[in-house]
From TrEMBL:
Protein name: Permease
Signal peptide: none
Family: Belongs to the autoinducer-2 exporter (AI-2E) (TC 2.A.86) family.
Keyword entries, A-Z: Membrane, Transmembrane, Transmembrane helix
Transmembrane segments: 20-53, 74-97, 149-175, 211-232, 238-257, 286-304
Membrane topology: Multi-pass membrane protein
Main location: membrane
Source organism per UniProt: Natronorubrum sulfidifaciens JCM 14089
A Pfam family the protein falls into: AI-2E_transport
Length: 362
């Protein structure tokens, strides 16, 4: 009887091991199916995750005041994120226009980057084609003439609007149901005292720091810098305007991740350029570089250091790592790399910081 029990135990354990391996293989297959099915939406998924971390502190503050989770998520997204997305979209379009103005750019290539999937062949992109299209529209102003142009933009706009809607809905459910998701995860997947839980908690803290901190800091500084640069250009002497104000505003925000000297180097380069131009044009115009430095190098920079950075920026990661994540992310992945790059950095650094010491041999 004892031998029979031993055989049953070995057989049961063997079947259990085989079953576990089989389920892990099935889980891997499911992951592969999801990756293949959703890889075209990766950018929008990462954007939704970014929106969640930006909205979450506001939604939690509203819930502490007695607002329901659904209403707090709706208010946070509606009052903060929708205007934010609209401003960010306009800013990106203007930035690309600035880049196109600096160097002769292939119009078709620029349109393909701005509107993936757009029927480029149906659009007039050269001067000859544009002139012929205008002449045809003038002589025959009907829907048949406008159809090629409208069909190309409407199809692309509809697809991108749908993707943006899915992103906002995804962020809404993450914000509204975050407590339920966390509770289910702790009770079903991992225990609170497990290594996996510690690692995921560290990743969550890192993403909150980077997304709500550094990304929001870059966007705020870039937006305000663009406004100030264009305002200064309104009072600039003839021929002494700040060149490519939108592009320089974006660079001002991006270079802010470099500690101490980042923005100062940029301001110094702009002041030097304006001084040289003033000297060559009219020495009396030297007041403009001085005004620029007072506004940006003293007033604006002190506001950023005293109020904006302490309020928004996290301190969990070395600023050099964050800088490379933001620089290399868009270069490797495209437009959504500004969100995916920091995500990969956080997942990697927190693994090295939290989990790797636990699995290394003593």
């Amino acid at each position: 009887m004892y031998l029979n029990l031993m055989r049953w135990s070995v057989s049961s354990n063997g079947e259990g091991l085989a079953g576990t391996v089989g389920w892990w293989l099935f889980a891997l297959a499911l992951v592969l199916v999801l990756v293949v099915a959703l890889h075209t939406y990766l950018g929008w998924i990462v954007l939704g995750l970014f929106l969640y971390y930006v909205v979450r502190p506001v939604a939690r503050r509203l819930q502490q005041q007695g607002v329901s989770p659904g209403l707090s998520a709706l208010l946070s997204l509606g009052l903060i994120m929708l205007p934010f997305i609209a401003v960010l979209g306009v800013f990106i379009v203007l930035l690309l226009a600035e880049l196109a103005a600096i160097e002769a750019t292939d119009v078709e290539g620029l349109l393909e980057r701005l509107f993936p999937g757009l029927a480029i062949d149906t659009l007039p992109t050269s001067e000859t084609e544009l002139y012929a299209f205008v002449e045809a529209l003038r002589s025959d102003p009907t829907l048949a003439t406008l159809a090629p142009l409208v069909s190309g933009f409407v199809g692309t706009f509809t697809v991108q609007a749908f993707n943006a809607l899915i992103t906002i809905i995804f962020a809404f459910f993450l914000v509204r149901d975050e407590r339920k998701i966390a509770s289910w995860f702790r009770s079903t997947i991992v225990e609170r005292e497990s290594n996996v839980y510690d690692y995921l908690k560290a990743v969550d803290q890192g993403l909150a720091s980077v997304y709500f901190g550094y990304t929001l800091t870059i966007i705020v500084i870039s937006t305000v810098a663009v406004i100030i640069y264009n305002a200064l250009n309104l009072i600039a002497p003839p021929g002494l305007a700040i060149p490519h104000a939108i592009l320089l505003g974006f660079v001002t925000g991006l270079i802010s991740v470099i500690p101490l000297l980042g923005r100062s180097l940029l301001y110094g380069a702009i002041v030097l350029y304006l001084t040289v131009v003033a000297y060559q044009t009219n020495i009396r115009y030297i007041w403009f570089p001085i005004v620029f430095y007072v506004v940006m190098g003293i007033i604006f920079d002190n506001v950023i250091r005293t109020y904006v950075r302490p309020f928004l920026s996290g301190r969990l990661f070395h600023t050099g790592l964050v800088m490379f994540a933001y620089l290399l992310g868009p270069a490797i992945f495209g437009w959504y790399g500004i969100f995916l790059g920091p995500l990969i950095m956080v997942v990697t650094i927190q693994f090295l910081r939290v989990q790797l010491p636990k699995i290394l041999p003593d």
